[in-house]
Amino acid sequence: MRLSVLALPLVLAASPVFAFNLNDAVNAYNGANGNSNAKATAAAAATPQAQGLLQALTSQLNVTPQQAVGGTGALLGLAKNQLVGTDYRQLAKAVPGLDQLAGANATGGLAQFGGLGSLLGGGGKDAKQSPLGSLLGNVDSRQDVDKTFNALGMNSSMTSQFAQVILGYLGKQGTQPSLLSTLGNVWGL
Prior knowledge:
Largest sheet: none
Strand content: under 5%
Distance between the termini: 46 Å
Mean pLDDT: 68
Number of strands: 0
Shape: globular
Number of domains: 2
């Protein structure tokens, strides 16, 4: 622990000033400590609002960070495919960074988690063509959401729990009640 506390200032001092931000500091610290879960969550949700959503899911539902990213990706992918364009744009605007978690975009964060290599085709560019990436990229129905949840080690009953937490979080972020109602219908609530 003492070594990583001393190493962090050295890493920070060696980083180019123009390419440095708070996420880089978190990633440098987590990389020095081998904390890949926190690093991948930070990459998947680069905004405080999106990170807040993932933290709400992990704390309220006792799921892993990768389950939070993947489950959110499945539900948002369904929303993106089912909502009219203006509704989805309004949703993405209400919570900056949310679109990074929708559908196949979520594979970028999931590819960095350990233990999902076979589902994600080893990560990187192949992640979207992997079994889980393919599921996240083609979420057109509630059954597709359930398949994704199963691939992440969750049963289909978790889908409605995720949807309720996400709707609650979106409501706190100022999303219009009519859009929340529409999302609830899309997600089968």
